[in-house]
Write a structure and sequence with these properties.
The structure is a homodimer. Chain A has 21 helices and six strands. By secondary structure, chain A is mainly alpha-helical. The first copy, chain A, folds into three domains: 100 residues, Alpha Horseshoe (MgtE N-terminal fold), CATH 1.25.60; 103 residues, Roll (CBS-domain); 185 residues, SLC41 divalent cation transporters, integral membrane domain (Tetracycline Repressor, domain 2, Orthogonal Bundle). The first copy, chain A, is elongated, with a radius of gyration of 31 Å. The longest helix of chain A is centred in the C-terminal third of the chain and has 38 residues. At the A-B interface, helix 3, helix 10, helix 11, helix 13 and helix 14 of A face helix 3, helix 10, helix 11, helix 13 and helix 14 of B.
């Protein structure tokens, strides 16, 4: 890292691999404009770590370089005891703004918004408005693409885009140009709901209002882009049976990587004892017909796989607000139909597997591998696969609704959880069917 | 649907539930401005369906209402035989633009870009530039937030934001205000790479260049928001073992829902026969020690769950470009360490389960459920869980790398696929360990 010829892009590329010292050194070797580019491209956590590493004298400049909403993100990433020192680096006005923003949770509209937005009065002409905006650049850092028309009490009357101002007749009143059918959110609107609003309405910015209808700030689509990725990443991690990681895979501390994974695995292992108990209840049958034991992995995999499909489809549809709690009956009707048809196809394959095995086994060894009652075994496997696949589909699709109804995160209905639940119950179904069909023949 | 009192929001809410006739009727009852709002909020597929349903006389107005990149999306959603008729509704200039755009794939930069962007010359003053932009509003519909400074051959020299134009001294040359360190993409840049660029650099728009460095159009962040959701949805569907659905869960046709799910399930069922074969190879041992059969679900679940975690973490990290192909050795080192520690914890739990079972079983029935050799059985289960969990972690984390190396989609390394692969191999590991430890005692 001592060669000063490293480009900005190379430095970013190598960033996760560098030690704190190498980062500090690399950063300090960059020209100011390159350093600003690099700083902009780091996320809040990385910015926070970098600030901790660079000399104290350089910290002030970088804290003041950030827009208020980005400074808030950075401070939220720092340890509690470091926050006052970081706040002290700011000028008093910004510090007040940021203290106000820090009161919001990171994942709600108040925590994502910038308090600096361009304000106009309804009676200004568009020419006056442009001249006015030119004078208040610092105040309007984030959001000059839209200017918000407010009355003296900060009640929002309308919005006008810079484009409309520039392309409207100079003497027209802002009131006549502004749009009034606005989508706004409250300070405590969750970031997932917010991101759905941006996506559904193709918006560039959404104003945030307090309870009394006064405008507090604005969330812009570039802030939401990160939310989209975060939300999807969290859901994917949960679907895979891991608690959501807070940092990129290669950067997350080993301890976090371990603790976020072992909890679910250990819990699922204990839950998995239910499957062993189910099997042990039928131990006698398994002893007299070992063939039944052989097909255990196939039966539980059918149920687990069907359940995993159903649960991931429903969890994703819920996250995108395509499916709501009240849609459960429409979902279950679809899933029962799909599950039945898929089960029938898989069950037929299962029958084919047993019959094929019988033919090949008999051909190779001269003795039928499952004895004389292979047609009954084939029927048992076939019917069990139909039933267990259907059951997996129903359980997998309904578990997210159950969690949502209990105000829990539907994404906790992970692939491993559904598979584990369906394992134990599926085995009971399988062996009951076996008892019924094979009683008097193999059993 | 005959009450004209239905609001715009209610109509959108009810949209998926309505028949084509109800949609047409509802839409026709709206005032023009409400109808425009509704039309804007529909996605390209829904717009295309609506256009098919409304009277032919109304179609022309709606096709011409759309920006070129949105019109392209709509036409791409229509059936091949309907496209010429839709193109004929456009004015000749727009039709030429759109025919050019239709040559690009939907999921690459050329297919997402708008060909209309604001062009400036480097020697204009900022005042001239603003006046010039005022005159060319139609040409600049999408992207007037940025104006692109090009030479006579359409080579891109720099970019200036409308904000910078408005806030710079009126007589300053555009050349002095523009930024020149630009991020651009080629026409065939994939949408996933494009969305990563937007996220990493917090951009509002990215210019698209042809091979000769001429600017062809611009992709804006609001177009990319949908891409983010689509890409994440596709990955989640694949992780769950389903081919990605093309439409929201409740709207997708039953036939598609079925065909996108049964293929993987049927394939996995056939692959699952490997686990049955593994077990049957050890049939003799299973017969003499039924307890071994009882723990089959627990052993394969440990491997499957650990593998599911590892594969989803790696698949997501690859999608976010946090992990690249060359990082495989760093990933495998992490996963071996995590897998060993998790395996040790789970293995200890496994030993506890067998010993606890022994104690409870003996207490309840008077006879030890696993006979006298329960310590050996506990050791077998413990060591098997350590080994199979470690193996699942390694297999799950490396499969996405294998797929990427073969230029396949890493997200195809789904939870069910990893679980099924680990099932068969894990059983062989389990029963080999059992043979080794229990030889001479239970076996």
């Amino acid at each position: 890292m001592s060669q000063p010829t490293l480009t900005n892009a190379e430095l970013i590329e190598a960033w996760p691999l560098l030690s704190d010292e190498e980062r500090t050194e690399g950063f300090s070797l960059l020209e100011r404009s390159d350093a600003e580019d690099l700083f902009d491209q780091l996320d809040a956590r990385q910015q926070s770590e970098l600030l901790r590493a660079i000399p104290a004298t350089a910290r002030r400049g970088w804290m003041r370089y950030l827009d208020p909403d980005d400074a808030v993100d950075l401070i939220q990433e720092a340890a509690d005891e470091e926050r006052p020192a970081l706040l002290d680096l700011l000028d008093p006005g910004t510090r007040r703004e940021i203290n106000a923003l820090l009161a919001y949770a990171e994942d709600e509209a108040g925590g994502l918004m910038s308090p600096r937005y361009a304000r106009l009065r309804p009676n200004m002409s568009t020419d006056e408005a442009i001249a006015y905006l030119r004078r208040q650049t610092r105040q309007t850092a984030e959001s000059i693409y839209y200017a918000y028309v407010v009355d003296a009490d900060q009640h929002l009357l309308g919005v006008v885009s810079l484009r409309e101002l520039v392309t409207s007749p100079p003497q027209q009143a802002v009131r006549e140009v502004m749009a009034t059918d606005l989508i706004t959110v409250g300070e405590d609107t969750d970031q997932e709901e917010l991101s759905n609003l941006f996506a559904q309405h193709d918006l560039m910015a959404i104003p945030v209002m307090d309870e009394d209808g006064r405008m507090k700030g604005v969330v812009t689509v570039d802030d939401i882009v990160d939310v989209f990725r975060e939300e999807a990443t969290e859901d994917i991690h949960k679907i895979g049976g891991t608690e959501a990681l807070d940092a990129p895979y290669l950067e997350v501390a080993f301890r976090e990587l371990l603790t976020k994974r072992i909890g679910w695995l250990a819990g699922l292992l204990m839950l998995g004892v239910a499957a062993v108990l189910s099997l042990s209840y039928f131990e006698e049958q398994l002893q007299s017909a070992t063939a039944l034991a052989l097909f255990v992995p196939l039966i539980i995999a059918s149920g687990g796989n069907a359940g995993t499909q159903a649960t991931t489809l429903v969890v994703r549809a819920m996250a995108l607000e395509e499916v709501r709690l009240r849609d459960w009956s429409r979902v279950i009707r679809r899933e029962i139909t799909v599950g039945l048809v898929m089960g029938a196809i898989l069950g037929t394959l299962g029958v084919g597997i047993v019959l094929g095995w019988h033919l090949v086994g008999t051909g190779l060894s001269g003795t039928p591998p499952f004895g004389d009652h292979y047609p009954q075994l084939a029927m048992t496997i076939g019917i069990s696969i139909v039933t267990v696949a259907l059951w997996g589909t129903i359980a997998g699709s309904m578990l997210p609704f159950g969690l949502r109804a209990l105000n829990l995160d539907p994404a906790s209905s992970s692939a491993p959880l559904v598979a584990t639940i369906v394992d134990a119950t599926g085995l009971v179904i399988y062996l009951m069917i076996a008892l019924f069909i094979l009683k008097g023949t193999m059993l």
